[in-house]
Specification:
Enzyme class: transferase
Pfam family, one: GGDEF
Helix content: 55-70%
Radius of gyration: 32 Å
Protein name: diguanylate cyclase
Number of helices: 12
Distance between the termini: 55 Å
Number of domains: 2
Strand order of the largest sheet: 1-3-4-2-7-8-9
InterPro entries: Diguanylate_Cyclase, GGDEF_dom, Nucleotide_cyclase, Rev_trsase/Diguanyl_cyclase
Shape: elongated
Order of helices and strands: HHHHHHHEHEHHEEHEEEHEE
Strand content: 5-15%
Largest sheet: 7 strands, mixed
Bound molecules: guanosine-5'-triphosphate
Structural class: alpha+beta
Organism: Pseudoduganella lutea
Length: 388
């Protein structure tokens, strides 16, 4: 993580983190902006008390209304673009800048009350760092620049003694320092929590040897999610079960470490042939893997399985310098087309069929692909029929 900006140095991880927090961030932004806008308007009372109901006080009220309108527009923009993280930061920054700009005429119109204005400025700076959700670097830039502008203005128009000027500068500098340090600490803690959560999630969902998803993830999340999606949009979903042939003899002949190497290479070969972020590869157990292929019909899945089978039988794994081993695999392929299948069935039924086909391929001499389409009948009757 970057020490200055308190963000992940890897932009992809940072984007993932921001999207993960987006719903919470938006609620926080809306609440804070509306609250700050209300406070800004209520403080018009101080203008009227200081200046009376004069045109200047009314002009200042206009500035306050402008801040409230920008805050409201920010909330509406974020509501209309629910998935944009960039827009959240942009609207937060614009509102902060407008809020700071609108403070300038108030200070200029009421120069006698500079100590109070300094206090308000300190509070506004803390709000920028700690309460309005924004990137820390933007908050830092807005906090520091507006503080400098305020100090210059105060020195030019105010009639503070040297001692008071020094106190004001010190207090506002401290507000910036404490605001930045606290916001940075908070930002780092939240990212560390996210990192730990991601590591734990990864550990519970992935197989440590091959990096593939594990059976638990398949059964508790993935398959259910993909089946529901395919059913909702009336799409095809294919499942391919594959298992290395005579894998026990690899272990027995070359040792367990060589067997592990073969498993890793096998998984890498399968992973290299599927669509990134669309298809999923699961280590189902031992040397058996499962592929879940959304929007894929039986012919497409069979074609892919056949390409995988051929690629594997042509490949070799280096298990020691200069020593290679070649393996083959058997494949069971099934697909369900929700454009025609309306019956509900337990998710295990698709895996069971792919598994049965895999063992049929083993019986048929191994290094082969067996495929059947899976379909259901009304009344929860589930059956399978051969493709084509
Ligand atoms: N090296 C290694 N071996 C494993 C792992 N998981 C399971 N195995 C081995 O995989 C082998 C599976 O053997 P079998 O179920 O008899 O299957 P096979 O020898 O591949 O025979 P067929 O599947 O019938 O072609 C066993 O020897 C297991 O110990 C693993 O993570 N690493």
């Amino acid at each position: 993580m970057s020490r200055l900006s308190a963000e992940f140095t890897d932009r992809t991880i940072e984007a993932h983190f921001s999207h993960h927090l987006l719903p919470q961030t938006k609620i926080q932004l809306r609440t804070t902006l509306l609250f700050c806008a209300a406070v800004y308007l209520v403080f018009a009372i101080t203008d009227i008390l200081a200046l009376g109901l004069t045109p200047v006080a009314l002009a200042l009220f206009g500035c306050r209304i402008a801040v409230a309108v920008v805050a409201l527009a920010s909330c509406v923009t974020n509501h209309l673009h629910p998935h944009s993280v960039g827009r959240v930061y942009l609207t937060a920054s614009i509102t902060e800048i407008v809020g700071m700009l609108a403070f300038a005429p108030i200070v200029l119109a009421r120069p006698d009350e500079l100590p109070w204005h300094s206090m308000s400025m300190g509070l506004m700076v803390l709000v920028v760092y700690l309460y309005i959700p924004n990137r820390l670097v933007y908050a830092l830039a807005i906090g520091v620049i507006s503080t400098l502008v305020f100090i210059v203005m105060a020195l030019l128009v105010g009639e503070l003694s040297g001692k008071e000027q020094l106190t004001m500068v010190m207090l506002l500098s401290l507000a910036n320092c404490f605001g930045y340090i606290a916001a940075r600490r908070y930002s780092l803690i939240r990212r560390e929590e996210f990192r730990v959560q991601s590591v734990l999630k990864n550990l519970s969902e992935r197989d440590p040897l091959t990096g593939c998803h594990n059976r638990r993830y398949l059964q508790q999340e993935l398959l259910n999610m993909e089946l529901s999606r395919a059913r909702r949009f009336r799409l095809s979903l294919a499942v391919v079960a594959c298992d290395i042939d005579y894998f026990k003899s690899v272990n027995d002949t070359y040792g367990h470490a060589a067997g592990d190497r073969v498993l890793v290479e096998f998984a890498a070969l399968l992973r290299g042939m599927i669509r990134e972020n669309v298809d999923s590869l699961i280590r189902f157990g031992g040397e058996e893997f499962l592929l879940v292929l959304p929007e894929t019909d039986l012919a497409g899945a069979m074609h892919l399985a056949e390409r995988m089978r051929a690629a594997l039988s042509a490949a070799v794994t280096e298990i020691a310098p200069g020593k290679t081993v070649g393996v083959t695999a058997s494949f069971g392929v099934t697909s369900v087309n929700f454009a025609s299948v309306v019956a509900r069935f337990p998710q295990e039924a698709v895996i069971e069929l792919a598994d049965q086909l895999l063992y049929a391929a083993k019986h048929d001499g191994r290094n082969t692909v067996k495929a059947l389409e899976f379909y259901g009948r009304p009344g929860l009757h589930v059956a399978a029929r051969a493709a084509g």
